[in-house]
Amino acid sequence: MIADGAGEDEEKWLAAGAAAFKQNAFYMQRAIDSNNLKDALKYSAQMLSELRTSKLSPHKYYDLYMRAFDELRKLEIFFMEETRRGCSVIELYELVQHAGNILPRLYLLCTAGSVYIKTKEAPAKEILKDLVEMCRGIQHPLRGLFLRSYLAQISRDKLPDIGSEYEGDADTVTDAVEFVLLNFTEMNKLWVRMQHQGPARDKEKREKERSELRDLVGKNLHVLSQLEGVDLDMYRDTVLPRVLEQIVNCRDEIAQYYLMDCIIQVFPDEYHLQTLDVLLGACPQLQPSVDIMTVLSRLMERLSSYAALNTEVLPYFLQVEAFSKLNNAIGKVIEAQEDMPILSAVTLYSSLLKFTLHVHPDRLDYADQVLGSCIKQLSGKGKIHDTRATKELVTLLSAPLEKYNDVVIALKLTNYPLVLDYLDSENKRVMATVIIRSIMKNKTIIATAEKVEALLELIKGLINDLDEPQGLEVDEDDFEEEQNSVARLIHMLYSDDPEEMFKIISVLKNHFLTGGPKRLKFTIPPLVVSALKLIRRLPEEGDNPFGKEASVSATKIFQFLNQIIEALPSAPSPDLAFRLYLQCAEAANKCDEEPIAYEFFTQAYILYEEEISDSKAQVTALQLIIGTLQRMHVFGVENRDTLTHKAMGYSAKLLKKPDQCRAVYTCSHLFWLEDHETIQDGERVLRCLKRALKIANSAQQMTSAARGSTGSVTLFIEILNKYLYFYEKGIPQVTVESVESMIQLIKNEESLTSDPSAESFFASTLRFMEFQKQKGGVVGDRYEQIKV
Fold this sequence. Notes:
- By secondary structure, this protein is mostly helical.
- It is built from 38 helices and no strands.
């Protein structure tokens, strides 16, 4: 082997060897062309002597070996022609052994042996046995490996296999198997010996070189897998035990990992299924440093794919108890390797779970058993902080969701939440998001309170922050996205039974109210919507024999709504609570629940007075109050007057005069409802309009005093439109004179022509009036009376 930094010298040695090789190959070819056997052997032996070097790395030695291989194929053809010309193959076989050095002698012997087998003058097994034994003469690891590789390569088409021309009474497939196994065993010994040559500081370099040579050893197993005569019985009784014996006994980490993987990859899946106990029995005997995790994972992947492509073999998996054998083997491997990292253990169980879900999708008890075994390995270790291990644990927990596309099935796995508990807060949120996405993607409906409770336990990483470590910063955008996903989830929790649905929203309330104030503004609104939907589904009290005493009634749901909305002002989300109170009031109105509706309005008014201080927010809130109150029909005269009076008071207290004006004229709608004769007070409508006009005048005067110019007439035009609305409705107090007076007032304003938007607004209003005149009928007659 060459030392570090000797790369240039190695190139020189290779060049020198290749030059000498080329020269001798030339003379050998000349001897072949002249049918001179003696000189052909002479120059071929000299040519092959270049392979005796110890100065080249495996990569460079391979270059030289391939040159030799090409020349030896020519020599083999020459030997065959010689036998046809009368040369005894037995004499030829003995003649090549006269070469002076053992390495060239054995290469020539293997070449002559190949011809000897082709002539069939002796049993193939005798020649193969002689060759494999003779090759023991080379014990240098690198030279020995390539020599035996050459032997394997030239003999693979001459093995006495079933259907082969070399099969006979004296030659059977058993002889072929014995030859390949002997060669494999010797090659593996040479390969392992490479690890123990040279100084310890070159260990990494030796491992790299061995990795480059591993295919030379693995090809023997590939040859075995291609033999027609190696059926299941021979594989189980002879091949597998012999190969595993060599793997276990070599006690080499690199060899054990590679050869176990070779067995899994080259032999048929059917054989693995029928010999699982033998193959798995070797796993605990491997060196602790062997990456058995990858080996077993690949085995389970192969078996899963086999089951997926051949559904008719599924009964055999149950027959051979594949799951139990794999589960027990994993347990024994983990027990044998006391220092196995958590990542490896979790990955093994993740692979086993995927195998179980693919092969036995109907056996939830198997899946739960895997999760239980995983818990057993994780017990006592607390939260997992290894990034790769937690990622693999998320993969394990995601597998049932991906397989069944139904969270309800995952909820049946009793060990599922116990495994989830080993994740830290961040990864619990990740897993919760995965679960919610699965529900949304597959439109899974969770229809019982019990299942909802179990689901909320699984996603508590998103709905509860009580166990989050201090100082943990969560990106606001990520947090909002997570909470919005929870909000969407609420709409998938649904039952056709009102009683069960009420239990579901009660469970949600209990979890959400303990989830921390910052989450409430996301989770409470959809919960309120679900409750309001439930109210609409309830039968009328007259149709319900139990009325308010029923287990689920509108009254109980409204009490429930009041409790959850009360939590919002402390969130703080008073504006959201304000809107929800008004929505609930409108729902109570449809249920003819006057006391409840009044209570919701009262709460909304309290929030308006105590929590909403921004002037813009007040204007928006007041519009919502007036709009909602205008649609209410459940209130008696006293309650309605109280609420209306309050709304009027709020309108007059707005900061800006234009806002006051608009709020006051909007209040006029509270006193006239077409479909309710009890709410038709023309006097108060007119009073509102006149008060709005007074405020508009005041606003214009203030603008004039502050800026030295008259203010906009837009407010007057807006009031005119209100006059026209109520005039069209036929309110007696809104007369033709009052409308004409407003029109004249606007026309007299000097600022009308200086404000294009106001001028356009006024022109549009006049065109509307003209349009109404042209419609004819009662409305047209009323507009005809107005003189513009």
